[in-house]
Predict the structure.
Amino acid sequence: MADVAHRAGVSTATVSRCVNAPARVQPETRERIEAAIRDLGYSPNFGARALAARRTDTIGAIIPTLDNSVFARGLQAFQTALVEHGMTLLLASSSYRPDLEEAQIRTLVARGADGLLLIGHERDPALYDFLALHRVPVLVAWVHDPAAPRPSVGFDNKAAMEAMTSAVLDRGHVRLATISGHTRFNDRTRDRVAGVRAAMAARGLDPAALAVVETPYGIETGAQAMAELMARDPRPTAVICGNDLLGMGALRQARAMGLRVPGDVSITGFDDMELSTVADPPLATVAIPHARMGTTAAAMLTGMVRDGTRPDSVALPCEILLRASLGPAPLSPA
Amino acid sequence: MADVAHRAGVSTATVSRCVNAPARVQPETRERIEAAIRDLGYSPNFGARALAARRTDTIGAIIPTLDNSVFARGLQAFQTALVEHGMTLLLASSSYRPDLEEAQIRTLVARGADGLLLIGHERDPALYDFLALHRVPVLVAWVHDPAAPRPSVGFDNKAAMEAMTSAVLDRGHVRLATISGHTRFNDRTRDRVAGVRAAMAARGLDPAALAVVETPYGIETGAQAMAELMARDPRPTAVICGNDLLGMGALRQARAMGLRVPGDVSITGFDDMELSTVADPPLATVAIPHARMGTTAAAMLTGMVRDGTRPDSVALPCEILLRASLGPAPLSPA
DNA sequence: TTGTAGGCGTTATCAT
DNA sequence: ATGATAACGCCTACAA
């Protein structure tokens, strides 16, 4: 920086201003400085800047895994929007494991993240204390719970699944089953199963009659879970899956068993992954607002970091996609 | 840090040592210090540390987009391995645009990235100068070109596509077509098309006879490109796609036109995305070693940053998956 | 609008 | 094995 200042015939203070608040330096001096910066290939030292300014303009995000395309897509939108706000993304993943997530949270704070994006509310309260101690604002995504003590941006997993289940019940199904991701340490999966039960209760069915199998997300695991469910007596006539991969596995297994979908059994998914559209039959599913979540999260977190404000939680709508795997819509009641 | 030192009855220097080289401090003092750290919830200041140590233990990566699952999967492996090496990931994306990529490269350097992972070799030489000036080691992924002036970890796009095309030619096809991603600013797509031509030439076919359509990656765009190719006279009997999404689009379009696959036209993809396995018929494709690339890249870059060494480029094998969309294997020549 | 100067929290060197 | 003490490079009142 001293070199730049010397070459432009100004003090380092002016160079600093020119970089951080161009408006506060005369256009001609600015041009001289910018030329010097270009000529010398100067790039400010990150450590020094962070130390002096007490911020890094960096936002950390910890997601379960990029292997799940819904998180990848949400993050893509988040990262792009972050850049537009002048922020950079520090990324870590937890593999759905609370212990790894905790380690990553501590790491990202130690790496100077000005703010953090986390998936779901549920984690050790001590972690929230740690973040508060270090004055690191947190935004929670992928859920919407206005009662939570932290701002969030997302959708109502329970309501979305309740709506999908209602569509299933509309088609006359009575024996329902669910293939869910593991519900331990995961409020999203739990809310989705709760949504199925809520819809059943609303129609006078016994929520306890719901057959539930939990398994990690995957086509293979979904197929195994489907085999298990189809072996039960009485056999469910509709299988509501907590994720599209599980739904694809169920679809495959149904076909392998010679069952017609939706003739013998209806199947639904959740997430609206690309592969659901090319499935045969296309998989009915819940489209979640990844992109809007990512973009909104970037704006909210940037505001939280810059102004220290605590924004209201934002709820984004899901869309229920009634595709062929669910079966045709019933005749509308006169 | 001063608080910790005071509480543990030592100097800040010892605290620093305890954090950075625990072996160099007596076990008992270490315990006192660690207790103090826990009690106070101390976390070292990143800026100060970076300034003094002249490193951030942070690696930057710039990929085209996380919306493409092959990059998402590669990055997941990269990030996980990075953590095991004690490094953290700074992530940016370019949307396949050289101007945005350049901006991101400069940003990540300014954000203190100790090293950079980039996709493909092709970019403005001035950028490589900039990186050299700032002593930021670069590793290129997703390609393998031992002749390049930089280390890389990846696979030989041309050879992989040549192998796939050979399999196509084995089945007696003579009129070939390719649906490729845009080849401008993209050495991977270019290499893949070159691979198709090389295989043709090796069999005595005229490489110039290859029908090529370029379009962005996507199912919809792939379908459009397929419609265009099928309208040509003579009509190609095999369509070799540079990406699975394009292949899925071609598959869909073929079916929409009443063409049987592989009866009337064979279709192949590239990348082995999950959706290719659930397609009907399953899409023949090239499986690329995302995970190994990511893991290897993390180890190589960490070494480059820590020891300042320049490793040899690493070539990883692809696998040709001869699925139903390609058609049955010919009788083996006696 | 521009220059001066103190301080940001660690690391690392050099004694002890 | 531990302590004292210079850097590290920039930002930001404050003064001019």
About this structure: The radius of gyration of chain B is 25 Å. Residues 1-2, 12-13, 15-17, 19-20, 44-54 of chain B lie near DNA strand C (CB under 10 Å from a C1'). DSSP finds 13 helices and twelve strands in chain B. The first strand of chain B starts at residue 58 and ends at 63.
